[in-house]
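Lecture 7, part B: from sequences to assemblies.

Below are the input chains for today's worked example.
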Amino acid sequence: MTDFEPVIGLEIHVQLKTRTKMFCGCELSFGAPPNTHTCPVCLGHPGTLPVTNAEAVHFGLMIAMALDCTVAPRSIFHRKNYFYPDLPKGYQISQYDIPLGREGRLGDVRIHRVHLEEDAAKLVHAGSSGRMHTAEASVVDFNRGGTPLVEIVSEPDIRTAHQAGDWLRLLRATLKRIGVSDVNMEEGSLRCDANISIRPAGDSNFGVKTELKNMNSFRFIERGIEAEVARQESILRDGGQVVQETLHFDPSTGAITSLRSKEEAHDYRYFPEPDLVPIAPTEAMLERAREALPELPAARAERFERDLGLTAGTAKLLAFRGELGDFFEDALGADGQVEPATLANWVTVELVPRLGDADPQESKVEPRALARLVELVSAKTISQSAGKTVLDVLAAEGGDPERIVQERSLAMAGGDELEGIVERALEANPKAVEELKGGKAKAIGAIVGFAMRETKGRADGGEVNRIVREKLGL
Amino acid sequence: MIDREQVLHVAKLARLRLSEEEVERMSEELSTILEHVERINELDLEGVEPTSHVIDVENVLRPDEPRPCLPREVALANAPDATDEGFRVPSPGG
Amino acid sequence: MSEDVVALSAAQAAERVRAGELSARELFEVYRDRSASDELGVYLWVAEEAPEVVSDAPLGGVPLAVKDLFCTKDVPSTSGSRILAGYTPPYTATAVENLVRAGAAMVGKTNMDEFAMGSSNENSAYGPVRNPWDTSRVPGGSSGGSAAAVAAGLAPWAIGTDTGGSIRQPAALCGIVGLKPTYGSVSRYGMIAFASSLDQCGPLTRDVTDAALLYRHMVGRDDCDSTSLQHPEEIRLPSSESLEGLRFGVPPALLGEGIEPGVREVFDATVARVEELGGLVEEVDLPSATHGLSAYYVIAPAEASANLARYDGVRYGLRSGNGDLTSMYEETRHDGFGAEVKRRIMIGTYALSSGYYDAYYGRAQRVRTKIAEDFREAFERVDLILTPTSPTVAFELGARTKDPLAMYMSDFLTVPMSLAGLPAISIPGGLSDGLPVGIQLAGPAFSENRIMEAAYALEQSIGFEGVPR
Ligand SMILES: [Mg+2]
Ligand SMILES: [Zn+2]
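Predicted structure of the full complex, as structure tokens:
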């Protein structure tokens, strides 16, 4: 039986985080009452004209650069003509044959193009209409209409659903890092369509592709792609042919359904938008965009791994969640003594679960405090488990780790106190003592465990071990 | 020659219903007009760039500063069918 | 006194008001009353009362007629279409706002060919306009209402729009002055779009001085129009009486068989007069200009097909249909648009559709480049180009309605300048069989001062009596 290879390309729409819309001065809103953020321009009134938002162009340039694209010396807008109630002018202003950026790359996937356009409005189903007895009615809310969008189209370089998800996470982290979008899939500020075809493994031709629309979470994207690949495989195995069409994936049932009938082929009648003039980024515009770019997640992960000796997984985790990476680096800078890999583990393994999705910069834990805490543990001033207790306190109340250690008597037990505790441990575990003496090394566990319980975790296991052996002359 | 099928196809793209009589007339008139228009084929246009703007300016950009929006009742005032909140339309596919 | 003030040009009236010799309110009432009893079909809306004006404003509260294609806040703005019946915009066009700020008082909104598509004003959903020189004839279009209003003394002056000749041609047919300015010199914001890369508004006036005065207060770069430009010169009121040293180009390519003998006669006389006034006349070659009309009738409908897509029955205007989405679109547009508008939407949609773009739209845009190059070369040799404005005088109502192509020929002499974005004026050159003949003067971009100086010198010499009947 032939093996099939999926060929996947992604199309991503990103809502930009500008203050105003793409072509008018209406303030962007999310969740505002319907139709309270509109003006004659974004309602498509007769006689109105678009004027391009400089910041949207700036963000577009940043994205093009972050994705390693060639920026067009002169790009223009086109009109994309089609009728839909959420499209007030009967055309969308978008870029067509000369996009802002092209031929880029992010990670292992090439970027085909990056272009600017405007978002459509929102159509809300309103149930049966009072006035129109025959049909269901919808209500159009133009608040979202005209929001600046950047559309990113990848080359079909992706081969598995998993790779698609991974790459999209990298893209999301990158966009988030450069601060151009909220990249929130549930709220629709990041939307993804997938172009999917399959071909016999080793073949270099492309099969017929389908377009899977608007999947609003990473998990759905992966599942949707998997389901569509499986659907296409079964069609081909049954000797059928894949039909080029637009599809919808229902995550609750896993079903894939056709969105538009084939005969309604699209003819967008693109032509250059006469109301707008070309964008020809000046050296100053390019420079401003370049300077606004921070270190990008992929490069950062590489640096964490290479220069700081973090494992690939930890490095990625910190770099892809930029705010974690920032916190980590702040902490590292605040205390020159702390070992990066240890600190990174504390951030990813201990701090993250205590914060959930919250931004660590907003939490009560100061980067310097975490660094100091890790330092105390590394120096064995406090035990690992006492360290976790201190972090609980830091997360809840903030403060200074040394002070917390002092106030709560969490310092490592040692000297006479520990000697005494070990004495008691030996007395309380005569059977283990006998076994240990008899050569059963494992038996020491019970004695050490007793000591740890007695100190409420403030003892260093190694030290207890050493004292036990010393006292028994082993 | 623009035939009936083409007229109907273009009318569909333009979301125009044409009466039977309009379809007939359109087929003739469009053919005549396009025939005239095709005289531009007499010109040698080899290597000539298209002009979509007669003005030679670039980068006309607007600062990202909010301007006042319309009050909702004003935005909805001209709508042929509206609720208190928005523009009512027949549901797509409904 | 009322009939006396109507005899004043707008500039004269403004001066009197500013000098305290004439009340702006009375002046307004005179024109308002005349407008209210309009029998030519000029007005679609007439103001009920005079707006507040500052009488020392430059335009002195002189009433202004505004083509119904301009959006005017809370005042019906239909663009001559049924699909916009009852539409009252939530904002005002920049050009109108500029004029109002300079002291113009809007007296009414004028009739026009639907969405400015037409050369006779017979395409208005609100009935035709009649030519005051002969009411059985058309006033020209699409700014026919504005032109007839000025010619008939129903307004001291007016503004209109010109996409392929829609100011110049009706000005010519009504025996008045019409200026189509350089593309971009007046903001298009608030002008209900026909063909965005060609549309330009301008004045329709009784004389060249009025045109200069009105234009002076219309120009200016507008933040709401990305394609608007600052005029590099102050607009001057013309004063020259001589054409000494000015070089005039006459393009034989445009003066072929389509020109009526009576029009030709007036034109030849004008050429002779130019030379008498010291102008130098020579032939210029505009080899591609004869293809202007063909290119125009692809580009304008193509842009229009997109500009008119917004009339869908959702946010404003007419809605028809049986309650499902497709019928809302198709019935609204079927009921709302007139025959000519439908024809152009069809041509434009076809020209842009898959498989035809290159053959039509792409080629037309290249022809446009050639035409602009022709003009550029010509203006290296001459200062101005001189032609008749319209190949014919005003024709009978109904004479061309059955033959779109014959109607389109009306724009043969005005379209080339539109495609190149150049300024051009039409002034009355004389009469042919009792009907006015317009003379067109065109110049390079932003040469309005030069054009109006020359037009003024010619106007003084011709001494046209601009009063029909
Ligand atoms: Mg898109
Ligand atoms: Zn807006």
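Note for the exam: The two ends of chain C are 21 Å apart (CA to CA). Keep this in mind when comparing with the next example.
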